[in-house]
Amino acid sequence: MWWTVGALEGLHADQSVWGRAKKDKVVMDYRGYFDQAIERLKTERRYRVFADLERDATRFPYALWRPEGEADKPREVTIWCSNDYLGMGGQAEVIEAVTKAAVRHGAGAGGTRNISGTHHPIVELEMELADLHGKEASLVFTSGWVSNLAGISTIAGLLPDCLILSDALNHNSMIEGIRRSGCEKQLWRHNDMAHLEELLIAAGPDRAKLIVFESLYSMDGDIAPVAEIADLAKKYNALTYVDEVHAVGMYGPRGGGICEREGVMDRIDIVEGTLAKGYGTLGGYIAASMAIIDAVRSYAPSFIFTTALPPTVAAGACAAVRHLKKSGVERERHQRMAHLTKHALQAAGLPVMSNPSHIVPVMVGDAEKCKQASDLLLERHGIYIQPINYPTVPIGTERLRITPTPRHEDAHVALLVEALVDVWKTLGLPFSEAKIIPMTRPAVATAPCTYPEMKRAAE
Length: 459
Ligand SMILES: Cc1ncc(COP(=O)(O)O)c(C=O)c1O
Description:
By secondary structure, the protein is of the alpha/beta class. The protein is built from 16 helices and 16 strands. The strands form 4 sheets. The chain has a 7-stranded mixed beta sheet with strand order 6-12-11-10-9-7-8, sandwiched between helices. Strands 3-4-5-14 form a 4-stranded mixed beta sheet. A 3-stranded antiparallel beta sheet has the order 13-16-15. The longest helix has 19 residues, at about 330-345. The model is unreliable at about 1-15 and about 440-459 (pLDDT under 50). The site of pyridoxal-5'-phosphate (PLP) has 13 residues, from helix 5. Pyridoxal-5'-phosphate binds near residues 145, 148, 214, 218 and 243.
């Protein structure tokens, strides 16, 4: 859109960007474009508002919320939508590792991995992650998003005429990795093995094929048939790339994810994970054979040309990975709280989508109502649950995505049920038939969540 300088006189940028030119010098109304873009989101009811929260490491899931315009009057809220699924961000060994690394190595990495950024904590972390997944090597990136971009694009891009077979519900980071590879892509219907097999047969045995999928889909909470995918890959000579972002730390005897739990780690070629969710810190990684890792290390611009994770973060992540390899307490309690929460919400007639994982999606089905429900929970009940709207989920399936953690207590669940019932009644949202569902696995006996080691760390 073009303007003359004269046309700008007296015209506020909020007005139509297509104004009349008065003089002959043409200028671009930059601001107008951005205002219009934001207006579009607002009209479509998908403009995102962030809550200003201050997590309390020693008292998670409690946090302070500073309402807009009242930053000096913080209110205590309970967080019910954190992806720090196990609360490892506040775990004593993790905090201690971060603190020691800061004192010892300073705040930053000092450069890209090529330019003095390969520090000992990141090397140790990579060894720990390779061991976690039973692979020869691993490579750490600045986020899970970047690891998918770099991993998929480089691996597929280095294979001749590679066909990427992608589950239809794969995450945006995987889609960006596929795009960046420049390779042909075919989508298989979500978790549909017959469709995947059809595409594998059509591609023929001689063509390079990369099957990319997630082990646990984070919006619906469903789990991929990883063993069947591995079988098909073997039968039709394809490579497999799994995103275990929502499973590492939380599933499998050592936290290796769904593939570890299902005993198929050795039949999956490349595992991608994050350090930002189950491990409570930041960063992403891939683990695979030495040849694949060395190739990605050597060819991926999103690895080569960016500063490495700082030693503090690498050391904290490493402590979290080590802890969860040994300790199953967090995993057990996490599963128990997820089951309890689903059970309690369903018993109250709230429309919980059933699934076999720790994710508790409660369907609203309307963007505006979803936002209102989230606002009411926060303002009236001190409960923070971010609304999930399009494009994260399809239009008409807007929902509240609840993520119980081992640090929630039974009493928190009772308050959550009460609050949600009140919000559902206030907004006239439909209840489903109240169901007393049997717990799908035995409740694990747990003591109250006191986390004494955290209290020590805080002292
Ligand atoms: C399936 C999946 N993969 C990758 C990512 C990106 O991970 P990170 O948050 O570490 O960038 C996400 C983020 O939520 C995700 O849901």
